[in-house]
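To whoever picks this up:

The nightly regression suite flagged Tetratricopeptide repeat protein as changed. Nothing in the input moved, so I suspect the structure step. Input below, exactly as stored in the fixture:
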Amino acid sequence: MLRGREGWNRRGAASLPDGGLVRLLDPALRAVPFSGRDTEMGDLTSWAGGAEPVRVRLLTGLGGCGKSRLAVELSARLGRRRWRSVWLDPADEPRDVAAACRGPRVLVVVDDAASFPRLDDQLGALRDAEAGRIRVLLLARTGRHWWTRLRWASTLWTGPRAVPTSMSHVGPPAQSLARMVRAAASAFAARLGTQTPDLVVADLPADADPPRFGDVHAAVLAVLAGREAGDADAVVDVARGPGALLDHERDRWEDTDAVVARALLCGDRRDLPDRLAELHVARTLTAAPGMTEVCTARITPDEAFEVAMFAFRLDVDTPAVTGAGRLTGALLEQVANQLPDDRGHLERVLRLFPRRPAPAAQAADLASRLVTVLAADEAGDSVSHAEALGALARALDETGRPDEAYGPAERAEAMWRRITRADPLRYRIALWYAMHDLAVMCFGTGRDKEFATLVDEAVSAWSSVPDVEAVWTEPELAWAMHSLEATSAPGSVDAARWYHDRAVALLRGLVARDPVAYAEMLAMVQANLLLLVNRGRPAEALEGLRESVAIRRRLARDRPEAFERKLAYSLSNLSHALAALGDVAEALAAGQEALALRRRALRKASSSARGGAPKLRFELAWSLSGVGVLLSEQGRPHEALSLEEEALSIRRDLAGDAPDRYREELATSCSNLGVTYSRLGRFGDALRLEQEAVEIRRDLLRRSSSSRHRQHLARSLSNLGVRYSDMGRTEDAVEPTQEAVSLMRQAARDDRWQHLPDLATALANLGATYTDLSRAQDAVGPLHEAVGALRDLSREHPEKHLPGLASALTALAVALGEQRRYVSAAASAREAVRIRDRLAATDQRRFGDDLARSVRVLADIEAALPTDGSRKGPFLAARSERA
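Regenerated output under the current build:
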């Protein structure tokens, strides 16, 4: 029998024997007049119309934002138009659902829809309901995977004509905080038979999220509960309101906090709104070590699902309790430890965390056990088996084990292909998701051709879907656009940017409808704008990278365990873009913040069973190297030294265990540390490291003729020439520097702007080498070309390229002076002095010595300038400059 909506405790009769204040928060009572949601209500009323027999809408919003109240109000308004409302319960049998939904106009409401383990069957029953029009409103904090899965798990959408499906989001109320407080105080006082008090509203912190109706109402009730007759004005503190009301309610409880917390975890609502229930559980479980184990000991399989559901809610909407973010993992670990190897129970729990496993280690354990059970029970293909294999692959990949993840992903994709052939309309979207997963595993394991094939097939499939299916396919199409951006040819920068903009446009629409599910995906796509930086267009990447950092900073504030590593990734990329634009101070700040986050992540992992995971060590080395390079380039090589040596040590260890994966980064660290050693005067150590880098990069280029390997080899060869010159072996410097120029010319033909800085560097170094060998005639051509290239680059990004231009101009002045072309030499030297004078005015420590050198070169040239047509004296050039 359908239970409908019976207060907060929807699994049993609601009872408040002593009239607790929290009863006034139940949306079914409509205690506070409905306001501030006119736009959303108009949208829902329009959605309920139309001629289609069935329409489904997912309405998302965080706890306390007003989703349930919207549904209650919609039910009331449609009821005046002779609609009948049915509120489902998780325990309702599908046949009862069908029977209850007979009639000309029926609104079906599923509150907290993610907690319905049989929602696919319950919705499928609506196909057989004898009704004229059915509107299904699903309320949830987020869709995530349970929502997408409904498309193929429920028969509601089967058949040639798909059920119109849509999503919308309940954002901040269109009402000021003061007005919300006044309305709630007046309504609650009337209900309680007291006089409306004068209230003062406390200011919210600057970085606080917009207030939610539920929190405002809880804060007002907390003030009313604690206010004595005759009290002066009371302060309504929305940030502390739920906690204050919860403390008032606890005075009514006879049980201990731990007993109540266990009951709440296992499905007993205790007449509390979800927000207060989650707050009490978070407070109790974080109050003392071991409390999580105490409150979840000896749970039954059904209770295990309730605990997992609680973990799911905490993963989405963490209460403001220190340490609450870790509860998701702790609760899932207890569930995994106590859940039996039963197919039904494993499936129910695992489906809550399939696409972003949280925590991945427990999801991998549950999925592995489920795959084993299904393999023993079923001989052929099945939807359950395909889903379990996919969940296992994603969880393994999340734990940093892409090689292990590839096999399950491949089997899942093959299984879905066979299942889809039998019923393409129903299962094709499931197949496309499996193709996505397999493509991710291919990319992570270096299977580039397989990755490209899957992405091309997926784009073709997703792009051809009718508009009515867009709600299901847009997330995958956005991912496909992002994949095309990441794999576009080096010279196709405009094409890559088009793919990126298309992905971002799709994701902005998705974030507007379900921010919990898609905000992180938008941050991921924007973080990968590093591709534009690497292709010589850093200015275009800056805004998107800043957005990525802002999104992940907000997510990491509430869930540091889940999002700090991702924030570090965005910060590193932002640092790289800022450095490319010459904004060194901000680049260094972003890089150092990323480094601190990665050190912390590795410390936490090292103290757990995971130990120093290779993926975490790789990320730490990335930040160590990035910050070290920035410090070294800023004339702070002593500060850079320990960071770069630590990065090299980590990368040697990683390359020793997995050379194919980590040798490229090892070569990078060798080269970077070699430059720093040179700046510290350790020329022999610098030469040996650059020789090692060249050897590694030659081998990588032999194995793969990609432009990236060619570019990196050219950089190392150019550096090697400088290292030889540092040692006084100038003749030895010629050959590697010439080869560097040749390689960079080839690369620049494919993508001039990406490779022009490296080509200019190699040309400047070649010219300086010729000058030192008294081959000024050979030096002038490369130096002229380098100066021209650096002029072009400086017009776009002066902070980044003006120092290089000044260096090349100084070297050119020396070469021209050697040829007795004093007028031209003086012009180049004067321009170099002007540039370095401006640079030194902003950073004397970094550019002061360079300015002094250019001034000396100019003085020598001017001294050699003839005044009467004859040469005054010999011009003796100092050793030429290198980039």
